Every structure is written in structure tokens, then in C-alpha cells.
Amino acid sequence: MRKVATALGAGTASLYRYVTTRDELVALMVDAVNGELGYPRPTTGDWRADVLAIGADLRALYRRHPWLLDIQPGATGIGPNGVAYLEQGLAALSPLDRPAGTKLEAVAMLSGAVSLFARDEASGASGATPDGRAATARYLAAVVTPETYPHLAEALSSPPRDAPAEDLFERMLGNLLAGLLGVR
């Protein structure tokens, strides 16, 4: 509350004239930021492209507002812009002949997967950088043998994909959602 009050040039106590709790303030902040997504928007009819576009939008939102990563999903309830996000996700999946509940679950998984990508990027964790990935690869090469870790050794013997992080993001999201929805 103090940080928000300071940013607004107001006293902390004055915020309580507008909101009754910190959670209410956070819910309003989350919904306001979700409004930056600008949903609903027209879809193309290509479910995969439309869902990946939503994923890219959400990833960009997390990059602009990393504090969102600290908010637990469902902790703030849902506001009008959150509803618009869900509608956009369901509109993107509308070409698929799948139950509405399955589509809603896929939209929820999209949100969670994008959050994990964004959290990894924001953390600056060594695995999120080329140097970190190289260090992990060196360690695995030193400890993994077909005798000790046969499945991992087989996976690591495949040629690596030297794809940019954006390709990984799109490939992983696309494959996750295709699997959840039972489509190609």
C-alpha cells in the first residue's frame, strides 16, 4: 500500500478511502494491467496462430509488469479485463470441435505456461541464458552415462535444437495446447 501511495503522491491512509484492503487494490491493479491486452480483438480462424498471439501478448505484459509474476493465480478474483482475456482465448479456439470446458482448461494452461516462461526470463536464472544452458549441458555430459541414466542419455544423444528462445516459446506452447486439445 505504501509503494502505491508513494507512486500516486498520496498518503497510505488516503488509499483506504477508495479500497478497503490490499487484496482489493491488487485485484484492481491486475485487472487494469490486463486491460493493456486490448481484448477482445478479431481472430484469424487459425487457432494455433491466434493462441500463440495471445501467448506473445501475455508474455509481453509480464515483461512490462514483472510484479504480476508475484500474484498467485486466482488470488485476486477476476475482473472485466480478465473476462475479456478468457473470451479471447475461447474465440481463438472456436474453430476446434472440442468441449467448451476443455477449451477453457487449455486457456488456463496457456496462462500458466506463459507465466512460467516469463518467470524464468525475469529471474535471470542461469538456465535462462545461453551461458547457463551451456553450463548445464557440460554438467550433464559429465554425469550422464547410458548405464546410470539410460533415458536421459538417449535424449541427450539427439542433435540439439539451436533454436532461438522465441521458437522454443512458440513450439512449447503450440505442442502443449495441441496435446491438451487432442489436435495437430
Into which percentage range does the β-strand content fall?
under 5%
Let me know the average pLDDT: 88
**SSE string:** HHHHHHHHH
What would the principal axes of the Cα set say about the shape? globular
Low-confidence stretches: none
Task: Please provide the count of β strands.
Answer: 0
Label this structure with key terms.
184 residues; mainly alpha; 9 helices; 0% strand
Describe the structure.
The chain has 184 residues and is mainly alpha-helical. Helix content is 65%, strand content 0%. The protein is built from nine helices and no strands. The protein has helices at 2-8, 12-15, 22-34, 47-64, 80-93, 100-123, 130-143, 150-157, 165-181. Helix 3 (22-34) packs across helix 5 (80-93), helix 4 runs parallel beside helix 6 (100-123) and helix 6 (100-123) runs antiparallel to helix 9 (165-181). It starts with a helix and ends with a helix. The relative contact order is 0.12.
